[in-house]
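Thread amino acids onto this structure.
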């Protein structure tokens, strides 16, 4: 294993599992270099269905250089409705071309506005909104431009193929150095980390906000979000955030913060209104944000803890493709496409010494998946060494499960998540450019696979 880039280590991704050198290169040179298409799993009725029974209009949108939340805000503004009436299955990055489903409540098809950088196709109507996770996965086609050494890609593929099957990466000696790019797809595997964008690609602080919320430190949560300057931001933004940290002057912050920081400014407005004298005032300011953003803070804290758990599992040399005693596995989603296995986190089983060999066979056949906790109030932490890892990480960040018993949208009972991310990967070379084609289950991150190839600054 190699140590990861410092900004990745800051969000719990401590290692690359491939020892091969990276290819470097530039990601997202243009939005068209990062294409994402949802693998849809949401049924609809015809568009002329009864609006009383099916009040949610469903449409497919191709977004070019639009972050999902920003598009939802623009759409609701143009329609003159609350943003809470716009729903989607998965949040996508801005600098990309994405194709995804949305639903909007109480709107006719002919009322959908034209918005620059988008193509909208009405799909039908539904009796409920699209919810986060209402998709099977995502298909990606991503170009990495101007790589420094395309030959290294073959060695990384070989390493990740071994990780997917549970082979010892060190057992093959220099075998990977002689590898060549396969002509077709190869099954590869990586730790199922939460990617950098979960925490903020340029300014990874979302988990810091969530950790403070879980500890009940509401003012610290506000300061982590509104203050807390990061070196990757423009100097003027850094200066504005530093002003907040130094003065706690919320009215003055409105003069300093750029207009583009709309959420930060809305927090300051609320603090000016309520006086910012008590912890409840800071909680109230955070609750003024959209509910999905409130949830995102705590989800990012859970994701950070999960990443730390995976890094500790790597540190201890525990397998990812098969369980050890004390692990908790989940089973394959019975509704998933036959050729696209998806873990069902609601169907879990603890692994005892007596059941170990049986569960190992299920994992070998793709029927079960080793998991780690996304810690919440009801999450099973596991036993044996996997349970020890989870408890130690929680202790390190100063939390316990009961801390996730939180008000409103901040509350989380937790779940579990597969520790290994497998995919059939195709790689094509065109001079110094590499094109990667693959599909991932919902909730997994393309950048987590690509980081093993690039091995550098994820924002480059």
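Threaded sequence (460 positions):
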């Amino acid at each position: 294993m190699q140590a990861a880039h410092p900004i990745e280590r800051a969000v719990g991704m401590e290692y690359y599992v491939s020892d091969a050198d990276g290819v470097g290169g530039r990601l997202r040179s243009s939005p068209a270099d990062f294409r994402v298409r949802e693998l849809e799993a949401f049924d609809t009725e015809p568009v002329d269905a009864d609006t009383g029974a099916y009040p949610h209009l469903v449409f497919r949108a191709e977004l070019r250089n639009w972050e999902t939340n920003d598009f939802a805000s623009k759409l609701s503004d143009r329609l003159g409705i609350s943003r809470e009436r716009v729903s989607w299955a998965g949040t996508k990055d801005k600098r990309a071309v994405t194709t995804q489903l949305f639903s909007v409540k109480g709107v006719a098809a002919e009322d959908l506005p034209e918005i620059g950088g988008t193509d909208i196709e009405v799909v039908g109507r539904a009796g409920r909104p699209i919810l986060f996770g209402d998709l099977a996965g995502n298909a990606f086609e991503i170009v990495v431009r101007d790589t420094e050494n395309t030959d290294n890609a073959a060695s990384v593929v070989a390493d990740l193929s071994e990780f997917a099957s549970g082979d010892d990466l060190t057992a093959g000696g220099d075998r990977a150095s002689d590898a060549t790019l396969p002509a077709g797809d190869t099954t590869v595997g990586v730790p199922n980390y939460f990617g950098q964008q979960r925490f903020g690609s340029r300014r990874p602080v979302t988990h810091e906000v969530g950790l403070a919320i879980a500890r009940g430190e509401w003012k610290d949560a506000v300061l982590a979000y509104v203050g807390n300057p990061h070196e990757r931001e423009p100097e003027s933004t850094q200066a504005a955030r530093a002003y907040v940290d130094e003065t706690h002057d919320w009215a003055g912050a409105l003069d300093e913060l750029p207009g583009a920081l709309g959420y930060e400014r809305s927090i300051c407005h609320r603090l000016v209104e309520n006086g910012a004298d008590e912890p409840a005032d800071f909680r109230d300011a955070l609750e003024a944000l959209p509910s999905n953003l409130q949830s995102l803070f705590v989800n990012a804290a859970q994701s950070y803890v999960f990443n730390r758990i995976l890094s500790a599992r790597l540190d201890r040399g525990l397998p990812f493709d098969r369980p050890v005693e004390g692990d908790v596995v989940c089973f394959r989603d019975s509704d998933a496409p036959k050729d696209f296995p998806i873990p069902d986190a609601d169907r879990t089983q603890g692994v005892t010494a007596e059941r170990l060999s049986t569960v190992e066979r299920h994992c070998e056949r793709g029927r079960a998946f080793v998991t780690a906790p996304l810690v919440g109030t009801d999450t099973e932490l596991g036993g044996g060494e996997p349970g020890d890892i989870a408890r130690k990480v929680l202790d390190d960040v100063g939390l316990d499960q009961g801390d996730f018993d939180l008000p409103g949208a901040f509350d989380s009972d937790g779940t579990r998540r597969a520790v290994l991310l497998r995919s059939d990967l195709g790689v094509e070379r065109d001079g110094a450019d590499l094109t990667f084609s693959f599909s991932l289950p919902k909730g997994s991150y393309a950048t987590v696979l690509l980081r093993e190839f690039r091995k550098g600054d994820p924002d480059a």
